[in-house]
UniProtKB/TrEMBL annotation:
GO terms for molecular function: 4 iron, 4 sulfur cluster binding; formate dehydrogenase (NAD+) activity; metal ion binding; molybdopterin cofactor binding; NADH dehydrogenase (ubiquinone) activity; NADH dehydrogenase activity. In the C-terminal section; belongs to the prokaryotic molybdopterin-containing oxidoreductase family. Keywords: 4Fe-4S, Iron, Iron-sulfur, Metal-binding, Oxidoreductase, Repeat. Residues 137-166, 180-209 form the 4Fe-4S ferredoxin-type domain. GO terms for biological process: ATP synthesis coupled electron transport; formate metabolic process. One of its GO terms (cellular component) is oxidoreductase complex. This is NAD-dependent formate dehydrogenase catalytic subunit /NAD-dependent formate dehydrogenase iron-sulfur protein.
């Protein structure tokens, strides 16, 4: 590729070059600057549904999701301005409200970005949490930690062409489901693990990791509790 094909734009006062077809977020990451992001991950189509990656673009009134916006020559983008940061923090705080502390994977991407932007706790009320689903032998499901970023859905549908995972219902009731809202263990899941790799919070984890004694994730406290009750009922 010729240098003349590159798209030069400004990010927080620094000039960077984007390859045609790259988003602002992709170009920024390639240039060594990360912008908060959760529903975007390398290798999956950008979906633009979490809004953690919003940036200010000179001349535009509304903040733009950097994972879905292509840079233009001369564009001036601010990812660290007061306005962009306030909005990124608000998104993280809202998402964190939905994830109980004992359901969040300690080293999750959500935890990472909350730490980076100083979001310690949420002022918002949590939603009603679904019961953990331990019906699958290889994958532990805890949708209490789900932020509906749909990375699992895209990984299942677009990477593996399995199409087991979907989004059901609308608005605040939106939820990840397996097939027709089946327990994961009785769904058509083949256990490939792409969804586990894609999940940024720990809503989907390897069952072995969750069940390991002293497992290094916070989620097992909740899951193990539910699982222990099931085991106690086995004669
Ligand atoms: Fe851009 Fe989620 S990472 S909207």
């Amino acid at each position: 590729m010729n240098a003349t094909d590159m798209i030069r734009f400004e990010l927080d006062g620094r000039e960077i070059d984007a390859v045609p077809g790259e988003s602002i977020l992709q170009a920024a990451r390639r240039a060594g600057t990360d912008i908060p992001h959760l529903c975007y991950t390398d290798g999956l189509r950008a979906d633009g549904n979490c809004r953690a990656c919003v940036v200010e673009i000179d001349g535009e009134r509304v903040l733009a999701p950097s994972c879905c916006r292509a840079p233009k020559p001369g564009m001036k983008v601010k990812a660290e301005s007061e306005r962009a940061r306030a909005s990124q923090r608000m998104v993280l705080e809202l998402l964190r409200a939905d994830v109980p502390a004992d359901a969040e994977k300690a080293d999750s991407e959500l935890a990472h970005w909350c730490e980076e932007l100083g979001v310690k706790e949420s002022r918002f009320a949590p939603r009603e949490n679904p019961t953990p689903d331990r019906s699958h032998p290889g994958i532990a499901v805890n949708l209490a930690a789900c932020i509906q970023c749909t990375r699992c859905l895209r990984a299942c549908r677009e990477e593996q062409v399995n199409d087991v995972i979907g989004l059901a219902r609308r608005g605040a009731d939106t939820a990840i489901v397996f097939d027709f809202n089946d327990p994961m263990g009785t769904s058509s899941c083949v256990g490939c693990g792409e969804c586990v790799q894609a999940c940024p919070t720990g809503a989907l984890l390897p069952a072995a990791l969750v069940d390991a004694p002293g497992a290094p994730v916070a989620m097992p406290a909740l899951v193990r509790g539910a699982f222990a009750e099931e085991e106690a009922e086995v004669p």
